User: Which sequence fits this backbone?
């Protein structure tokens, strides 16, 4: 506490007390220090300026002008608090940007995988279906000794052609 | 005649085995194919694990996706609101030379730093979208497969007995492929959430401290609001204070005198002075009324913003915990419980909607 309000008797006392507070505010704002420490100093000064305005002799005509100056100093202290908040954020920003980059990288590589899954599966299924048709042909060849041999072979060839055409159309 | 044991089914099983062992972006060279069951033991090994994989389902990630979007929204809204709130200082700092510029520079500095928070949250939104896309990919792939299978089955009707076999194989292909996709998606999800979790927990901690810092700044502003907004109302406010003090003093005198012999005079004096003061204050309301309204409105706004930041801060903490639950859920195969996360997202949503209503 910089000010002993009980001891302030006249205009000069109050004006000097305010000057002391404003100078202390200037020093607090100009001195680079840890964010927490600056904020604590500013908080102490805020409290004193508010108390100054509350206790200044309202019936004295000069008190309003002093209160206005105290209010202006309080405003500047709040700007100092905003700057301290910004410094506090800044102390974590580089780390946050590094993390963001990591997450973005992982997201991009996995997004590519999702797209691959959707499209690759389509091609894979077609390939498997073509294999299935070939398997039908293998079965047919294994059972060649039948009266309908020629018909089955024709059908298998037709199926293979249809699947190939179908695949081509989807690939296009 | 020697019959080969269902070569097409073997090929399907082989294909599924390959799917199962694949991982996203795998660079592994293709496995040489063989049609013999004896030299394809992995096909059987896969069959042994089939009951486990049958229960494999990707979790519902929509609540996580939505809550991430809400947090992003709160971070964007917080920046705008915080900047506007700090502009309340304009009136006070304009009395100091260079004060307005100082405030403008400080706000620009804050906005620059907050941009990094917005960017981080956008990355998290993209991450949540990707998780949801991975979880949904098997279902989408199945739709494609079913459409293709339908076409092939239509064609296979012309094959009589062999056509039926082909239809069966097609159904089996779709089922096994769908299962393989579920497995791949679950593995991809597990891998991704495990990779991202440490970074995400770190973002949670950073945002938590950022929100706390912003809340503290607004609380201080709230505490000093009457002084910061007094502007050129100082003289009138002082006169009001004197008159209000006079009224209080007169009331004390009245209470003391009313029990004495001069009580009639005491009441008259109190009444006449009160009437004069009352008239002055009523007249003065036209001037200082705007000040009191401004203090009231600004205070309501600041408190709503503090509430939003508080909801966002809690939301971020819940959201980080929910991600940990997701890690566990993917390890155990149990669907994560999103109820708490949904409540947090609702609270943020409510706070933002309230701000929008207040703005109108």
Assistant:
């Amino acid at each position: 506490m910089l000010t002993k309000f009980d001891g302030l008797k006249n205009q000069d006392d109050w004006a000097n007390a305010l000057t002391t507070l404003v100078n202390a505010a200037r020093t607090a704002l100009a001195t680079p220090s840890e964010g927490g420490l600056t904020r604590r100093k500013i908080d102490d000064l805020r409290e004193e300026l508010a108390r100054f305005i509350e206790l200044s002799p309202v019936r004295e005509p000069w008190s309003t002008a002093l209160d206005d100056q105290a209010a202006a100093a309080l405003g500047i202290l709040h700007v100092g608090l905003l700057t301290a908040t910004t410094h506090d954020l800044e102390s974590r920003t580089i780390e946050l940007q590094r993390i963001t980059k990591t997450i973005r990288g992982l997201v991009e590589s996995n997004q590519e995988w999702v797209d691959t899954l959707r499209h690759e599966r389509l091609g894979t299924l077609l390939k498997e279906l073509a294999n299935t048709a070939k398997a039908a042909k293998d079965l047919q060849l294994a059972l060649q000794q039948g009266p309908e041999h020629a018909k089955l072979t024709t059908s298998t060839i037709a199926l293979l052609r249809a699947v190939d055409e179908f695949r081509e159309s989807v690939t296009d | 005649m020697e019959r080969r044991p269902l070569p097409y089914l073997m090929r399907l099983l082989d294909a599924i085995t390959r799917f199962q062992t694949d991982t996203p972006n795998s660079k592994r060279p293709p496995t040489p194919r063989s049609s013999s069951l004896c030299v394809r033991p992995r096909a059987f090994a896969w069959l042994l694990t089939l009951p486990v994989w049958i229960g494999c389902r990707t979790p519902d990630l929509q609540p996580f996706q939505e809550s991430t979007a809400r947090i992003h929204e709160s971070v964007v809204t917080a920046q705008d609101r915080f900047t506007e709130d700090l502009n309340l200082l304009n009136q006070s700092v304009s009395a100091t030379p260079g004060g307005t510029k100082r405030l403008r520079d400080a706000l620009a500095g804050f906005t620059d730093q907050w941009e990094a928070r917005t960017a981080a949250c956008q990355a998290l939104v993209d991450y949540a979208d990707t998780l949801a896309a991975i979880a949904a990919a098997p279902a989408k792939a199945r739709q494609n497969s079913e459409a293709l299978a339908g076409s092939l089955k239509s064609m296979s009707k012309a094959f009589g007995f062999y056509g039926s076999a082909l239809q069966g194989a097609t159904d089996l292909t779709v089922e096994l492929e769908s299962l393989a996709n579920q497995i791949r998606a679950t593995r991809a999800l597990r891998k991704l959430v495990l990779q991202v979790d440490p970074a995400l927990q770190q973002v949670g901690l950073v945002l938590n401290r950022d929100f706390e810092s912003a809340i503290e700044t607004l609380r201080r502003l709230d505490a000093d609001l009457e002084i910061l907004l007094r502007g050129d109302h100082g003289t009138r406010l002082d006169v009001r204070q004197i008159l209000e003090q006079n009224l209080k003093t007169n009331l004390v005198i009245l209470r003391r005198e009313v029990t004495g012999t001069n009580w009639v005079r005491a009441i008259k004096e109190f009444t006449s002075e009160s009437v004069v003061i009352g008239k002055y204050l009523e007249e003065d309301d036209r001037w200082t009324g705007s000040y009191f309204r401004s203090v009231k409105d600004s205070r309501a706004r600041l408190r709503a913003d503090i509430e939003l930041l508080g909801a966002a801060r809690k939301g971020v903490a819940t959201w980080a915990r929910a991600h940990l639950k997701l890690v566990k859920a993917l390890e155990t195969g149990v669907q994560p419980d999103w109820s708490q996360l949904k409540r947090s997202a609702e609270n943020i949503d409510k706070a933002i909607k309230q701000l929008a209503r207040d703005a109108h």
Residues 118-171 of chain A form one domain. The helical segments of chain A are 11-30, 35-55, 63-142, 149-171. DSSP finds four helices and no strands in chain A. Chain A has two domains: 5-99, 118-171.
